[in-house]
Amino acid sequence: QVVQKKSGISYVVKKDAIVNTEGELYKVVSTGGKEITLSHDVKRIGEGAFEEQPGITKLILDKKGQQVEFGENCFKGSGIRVIFCYSREQYDSVKEQLENGKTGASDISVEFSKVSAEGHEYFTESQNGHEDITLIRAAKECKTFEGILTDKDTKEKIRVTQIGDNAFADCDQLVWVTLPEEINRIGYQAFKNCTS
Q1: Dihedral through CA 139, CA 187, CA 106, CA 14, nearest 10?
Q2: I need a surface site. Which of 35, 73, 138, 151 has the fewest CB within 10 A?
Q3: What's 71's DSSP letter?
């Protein structure tokens, strides 16, 4: 869906954000959710892109691990508390850009996202002595989900406590989900377009 065309640049809505043809995230649109995942073609977050979005607290970068440039004051007026990265290069770039102070935000932490042995994307977040395990994105071929992930390296079982925004979106083979008692949040449109 084309939003606007200006001096040869088109703006389209992608994953709850207005992105131009040059790969700049121009503006985050209100999603009703607490997190936003960048589409793979976002290369830069523009000035004021997260303004007036205090409800969005988590930014999840693209899982391909590409670096994203942060424009001046891109997080000013936002509620972003944590940015999740998939690669060391992404992580180092984000840390450096946040430390230089031009993003208009302070107290944003940077963490790594993980992929379970089953292919599910998740992250661990600790606050006030409490640890939450959030399922970011279920594996596309997921047919059932019991609320437990397997650590790819240690083979340890991990109990999910939160289902993230759009976590099962477009999992068209999903037929059964059992959510354990530990689940304390189900994100915005967590089961969007699940048709089975």
Answers
A1: 70
A2: 151
A3: P
